[in-house]
Structure formats: C-alpha cells, structure tokens
Amino acid sequence: MFFSRPIFFVLGLVLLNSVHTRSNKVCDFKDVRCLTNGANNNLKKMILGIKGVVESSDPLHLPECEGEMKTEKVLKYKIKNGTLSGMKSCRYTYHKMFAEDSTYRTEFLCDQLVLSHYFEAKGYIGPVEIDGQGYLDLTLNNYVLKFNGEFGQFISEKDQKPHWTIKTCHYGFEPRGKVEVDIKSAVHSDKAKSDLAKAYLQQHPNLLEEAARYPVLENYMKIFIKNLDTQLRATPADENVNAEHHRDNALGFLSRILGKRFQNPIIAIIDTGSTFKTPLRTVDLQNKNVDEKKALLYLKDIIQSTGDENNPNVKRTNEKFGNALRTRCEKYIECKIKCKKKKDPCENICQNKYDDLNVCETTKDKWLTKTNRQVYNYLKKNPPQYNKNKFTSTKGPKWADSDECKSSDECESSDECKTSDECKIEIPINCESSDSCN
C-alpha cells in the first residue's frame, strides 16, 4: 500500500562484475571481500546512471501498483505515482559468486530508504478500519536487502570480451533500524476512525513495511534489476572493477576509521598477517562493539593484499598504525609509572585498559625507536603470545550504547567513549557471522 521506499535495488551486487587482481585476472569467486568491494565500486556508477547506457536508479518510479495485506482482516490498496529513493545510501555488505552453478548470494545495507506514494485503500489493518486516499511516506532505516539467483556470461561481438548478465533473482528483507510512517491525509471519512487508524499505524509502522514488500518492492526491484542488467550487458567485465579500486578504497576506509572508531587500535595493529588467524579467533571481543570485530577481520584482509609502500594510501595507513601503536603504548607506560609511584597494585588495570594483547610489553622499547613501517613489519615477524583465557574477563572500551556511556556529552569529551555515529561501521566481512554464508 503506501509503503516507504525501501531501497530495493538490491541485486546490483550480483554481478559485481569482474573484480580484478593486479594481473587483471577476475577475482577468485571464493574471495568474498574482493567481490564485495568490486560490487560496491560498480554499484556507485550504476546508480548514478551512465550516459548512453543506463538511466539513474535513484529515485526509482512506479506509476501504479495494486495489492493487499492480511492481518486479522484484509486491506486492499492501490498506489499511484510511487517513488523509491535513498538507494545512494546502500552498499554491499556481502557478495559471493559460485562458479560451480553460476549462482550468486548478496546482502545490501541501506542507511535510509523512503517510499512515497499516493494511495487508495479500503479494509482493515489489525483492528482499525481504513477507507480513504491520500499521500504517505514510509522511511526504512538500516534496511537490509538479501538476494540470490543465477548469473550468466557471454562474449560480446563488439569487443570480444566477457560480459555479465542477470538471469534470475530472489530476495528477502530485514529491517534492522527504525521504521517511520508519515501519513499526510485522513485515512477514513469518519474523523474519529481516521485518527484512531493513524495513531495505530504510528505505533505499528512495521505492518506497513511488511505489506510494502510484496508487490510494491517487488515491482521496484524489477525496474532496478533491468537497469543493472542493461549496464552489465553493455560494459566489459574487466572495465567495471580492478584491484586498485579494491585496495585504494579499502585503505582509504582504514585511514578514516583507525583514528576515529577503533577503541583499541592495538588490536588492529597486530592483527595483520596470515600468522594471526588463530589469535584473531581466540580474542574475546564480547565486551566490544561488534563493528570493531568486523573491522578487524576486514583490516586483516586488506593488509595482506597491500604491498606497495609507494602507494599514498598505504603510507597514510602505515602512519596511522605507527601513531596508534606509539600513543597506546605511551599511555600504558605512563599508567604503569603512576601505579608504581603510588605503590598501588594497578598494573593489571593499565594492561587491560591500554595493552589488552600485551603488545607494548612484547615489543619493549622498539615502538619508540622504529619507523611506522618498521613497527608494522616488526609486529608481523614477532607476534605476541596470546592467552585465550586472559580475555574472557577483560573489560572492553566504553561504547555509546553501554551503561557506562549514555550521555552524548560524555561521549564527545572522552577519548575512550565515542559517539554511536562514530562507532558505526558497516563493511564486508567473512562468512562466520552471516546466515547467508552457510
């Protein structure tokens, strides 16, 4: 019926179209992060529209659509002049392609989608009666779109290169954030019934979100997929995304988050090479924001794929590593000195607060004398020893949604307590925490 514009241009990811390695070979289909980053790069271009190839996909327009929703009773509705906007806020958080059966599986996360429609409706939603027409906006915050289906490939006669095509698509939806409804007119000729119905819908906006999935979002999806397929068919796979896009975008992201979002940069610094696979699994991050764990997994992958020290993004990232390490260890040493002067048994507190993984003690004074890149290399060659049991009771940093950090003033003034907006990160992760990765 009148349902928000849940971004639904989802499947774009599907053919993330070739993601390349340095040798211009398509990414290994098992490399989820490479595929996901490649899909994101392709998505931005596609949504903005490509002159002479495909029109913009934000907003999408739906001239007319009829449907019904069932609660205790049935509500029949018709929408006209529908608009789905907000797709520019969407990004791939998971994308995988399977060479064996030419299928794909994808997840999108959209910061905010808005469905705007003129509606005509008659029937019941829950216990309240609807019999009217007007305008309605449905806003979906942190909305997840899930897609899977089959993809195809063909060699273009024009350039003799492989191109992708979308063959089928099935989808699902998962609202993770707040759903908001704005009904701009009466929904019943009887004012009392109209006021009651509007109040009920304000309290139960998820009913509208569920009703909007089929057939409203389904029809928006058909429009979006058609646009995506048009772009994929027209563009050679090897021109859509390459390894430099993958590395540079990722490193730029890390440069931004290391200084702002990592409450424990030490973890980020040491968890870099393939030798850290086991430590990564043993560290208990249950007291830390889950996004930090995602960031660590992502960081590990990026460092392994980055070897060019002349790349400006690599230099900036290395500088962040070195600065974060020195700053953390300096605070740790200062804390220990104060404890000794006071003769207080507080060294464990210092370690839990500034050196969870024993990096400062392991590297001794080398973090003071080595350059940024040398520090990084040293830690890779001399990984600290981990004790799984050590971390089960370690108190993690404060987060904006914790009991210890509830006021915005406190968050903004503390180095260890950031605002929730700063802490939010949504990035490609591996399959360990995704239902769709089974």
UniProtKB/TrEMBL annotation:
Sections of the chain in a coiled coil? none
Region Disordered: which residues?
Answer: 387-415
UniProt keyword annotation of Signal present: yes
Keyword Signal assigned to the entry: answer is: yes
**InterPro entries per the record?**
Haemolymph_juvenile_hormone-bd, To_sf
Q: Give residue spans, biased composition: Basic and acidic residues.
A: 398-415
- The leader peptide range reads 1-21
List the keywords (alphabetical): Signal
Q: What is this protein called?
A: Uncharacterized protein
